[in-house]
Structure formats: structure tokens, C-alpha cells
Amino acid sequence: MGSKVKKESVFTYAQLQEMQAWPLEMKIENAQKIIRQTFKYGKKIALAFSGGKDSTALWHLIRETCPEEAKNMIVIFGNTGVEYKESLDFARKLGKEWGGENFHETKLDRIKVPRLKYEAQKMVWAMIEKQGDAHRYLNKKGRLLSTDKLNEAVTPKMWELFREQNLVWEAGTQISFWFIAEQYGFPILGKDATKLDAPRININVFLKYSTEQSEGNKEYYDMLREFPDMRISHSCCYFIKEQPSQKLQKKLGCDTLFRGLLASESRRRTFTFLDYGFLYKGADKYLYSSPLAIFTDTDIWAYINSRNCPYSELYDLTDEKGNKLFERNGCYTCGTGLAYEGNNIEILRKHYQPKWRGLMKYGMAREMKTFACAMCNDVKLNALESDYLLDNRPCAFDRLTPKTDILKALREEPEQLDLFGGSTFISNISK
């Protein structure tokens, strides 16, 4: 069994390729062996369930392999609040049928004190600097002590004015995608494209005062300075998916987690598998099990079709030419695949107009416009794109596709791109 404290790899890339070439039945037998080992080593075992094809196939295989143990297995559905309706309905229906009382759904946290919105935070910080009090709000390394520390500088009259202008998140507000997007930024490109994981106001302060700025990230920092209102972040993934699931796992006393991860999904997952294998104990002391790691998308569908395994109708949706819309499920607000054809944002624009319009009006249009301006400078684009191209799909097992029509239009004539699919230009809707 691998461990996250080990540095030597469990498998070589050649070994992974060899296993991925195995026939389906051989992969299933291997997965069943991993499932049995997981039940042997784990005490209170949970399945991370998204309603997607991979975790559904894994749940089905667990039930087939260890039916008695599966009856007591905890199933945790990570409801992000921005799921496609088809995925949400399927996950809840299957959870009720297969999981019963062991099926649990995550809930989003809520803020405990009022939080200023970004525009108000900028005004308050400008006032603090003008008064010469910046040092009172910084640690020794030039970082903001905390975002909520800014509240101390806000007078009752200022609170009243900010509330009148709808510039306050009140205590009790859910830490939803919309809250994170406003405070941190929108998920555009891959996780490694954003090198600072903090609210945008904290980043502004960091760029001006911090003594810890890495020379290797200079291009990225320069881009943020040139575009001070650019809000691109992947903090939503942590706050609406990872953290709620972790809290629920802890609350339920789980020590082992099944995950329907495929090594072929991304470069990051490839290396995770090479380093740690199918079953390992993480630094957090949890036991992680990925029985389907050597499966490909083709294998998953072959398994589903040959075993009469249910799946979300999201995967059956097609465009006007009969082409499948979705290879995988996920948050409808996610823009991580923006650089590639068939990405989530393109699908929203063409087939989910109400959701598209809501997302664009909320601020994604503004960020896409700002991103388009950054793209006009290839050096600054590289600051965002280089790590992304390495980390996200398409990865080593996929064919790199051309840039999407949206990105081509953004780069060539950003002011003419109609993000609503109507007649309103981006320059107007992003004001």
C-alpha cells in the first residue's frame, strides 16, 4: 500500500500504459481486488459520489463485488449548488434507491460575520492607505491579516451606505459559488493557472506590500497588476466541493474513501496514480482507494452498457446534429475547459440560455473580457496558460483540439463578441 509520505513512485508510466491496454474483464478483476483490499483495511468506508458516470460505475461494481459490505458503506454526494438538474435529480434518485439512510448530501457553509463585497473592500482599503494606517492591517510579511479585518475600519454610516448599494454579504450568507466568484474570482482555465489562492482584495494588498513574491511567478504578478480587477480563481472548487465533503466525512467518522478517479483524466491524476497507486494513506491519515484508476472513458461506458448500470440522462443529451453534449458532468458554472472545443461554457451558451445569461450577467462576461485583453499580450497569456495546458484535459491520452470559437473571438475582436447570443456587446453587459 502506498503512502503520501513516500517519494518513490509506485508505478512507471510504461506500466500504466500497459495496464490501460488490458482487456476490460482484466481491469474489472483488478478493480475488484482493490475493492476487497479497501474493505479489509478500512474501518468506516465512504464513497465520494458526484452523480457522474465514473463514480456511478464504481458504486455499481462495489455492490456487485462486496454486496454485504456495500450495504453499510457511507455515500457522500457533493452537492455544489451549481449542478446540472439532470445530474442532481439522478444523484438523489440513485442515492435513495441504493444508499437509503447511508446516502448523505453535503451542505455549504455560511459566513459568520458580515463581509464587504469587493468594490466596498477596495474603497475601504484606499481609505486606510490614505489615512496612513495600512501597517495596522498587515502581518510582518506584508499580507493582509484577514479579509474581515477590514470591517474594523468601517463606520456605522459606511455600513449603512454600503448596504444601500448592495455591497455587503450579510452574516449567514451561504459560501456558494456566487459568493466565491465575487470575493475570489471565476474559474477560467485550469487550477494551476491561478497561482494565488486568496480573496482578490488580499491579492491586491499582497502585490503591493508583500516581501514573499516568488520570482518564478513574476509574469503572473505583472499581469494582475496591469489588470487590477481581474478575478480568476479556482477557490470555488475548494469551498463548494472539497471542504463540505471533508467536513461531512469527519462528522460521519469515515476513515476511508472510495473515489472514481481515472488516471487518464488529467496530467495531475496521472502523476498521483504513478506516485501512490490504487490504494494509499494520505498525509491526512485517510485511506484513499481508486479501483478504476486504469480505466478509460471507453472502459467506463463498456462497463455501464454491459452491466446494465444506470447513469444520468445528462450524458444522453445531444446537439442538433446528434452529437453528445457532455463527456462528463460537473458544475455548470465551470470555465476550466475554456481553451478547448466542447467546453462547458460553449454548451451553456448554445443549450442552456437562462443559465448562460445569469452567469454572464453576474460577472463572468466581465472576466472573459478582461481575460481577452490579457490575451492580446502573448507573454501574459503564457503566464496563465502554460501550467493549464500541462494539467488539464486534453492530457497525455487525448488529442489537443484547436482553440474554441469563443476564445478566438475574444482574442481577435473582444469588443464585438456577443456573449449573450443576442445583440448586446460584451462592452455593455460587463459594465
Q: What does this protein structure show overall?
A:
This protein folds into three domains: 2-109 and 237-315, HUPs (Rossmann fold, 3-Layer(aba) Sandwich); 115-173 and 206-227, no CATH class; 344-429, no CATH class. 47% of the residues lie in helices and 6% in strands. It is built from 18 helices and nine strands. The strands form two sheets. A seven-stranded mixed beta sheet has the order 1-8-9-7-2-3-4, sandwiched between helices. Strand 8 (279-281) and strand 9 form a beta hairpin. Helix 10 (218-226) packs across helix 16 (378-391) and helix 14 crosses helix 15. The model is unreliable at 2-7, 385-403 and 414-431 (pLDDT under 50). InterPro entries: PAPS_reduct_dom, Rossmann-like_a/b/a_fold, Sulfate_adenylyltrnsfr_sub2. GO terms for molecular function: catalytic activity.
Could you outline the blueprint of secondary structure elements for this entry?
Blueprint: E1 2-3, H1 13-20, H2 24-41, E2 45-49, H3 53-65, H4 67-71, E3 74-77, H5 85-99, E4 103-105, E5 115-116, H6 118-130, H7 156-164, E6 168-169, H8 177-183, H9 200-209, H10 218-226, H11 235-252, E7 256-258, H12 267-276, E8 279-281, E9 287-289, H13 297-307, H14 344-351, H15 353-375, H16 378-391, H17 405-412, H18 426-429
Parallel strand pairs: 1-8, 2-3, 2-7, 3-4, 7-9
Antiparallel strand pairs: 5-6, 8-9
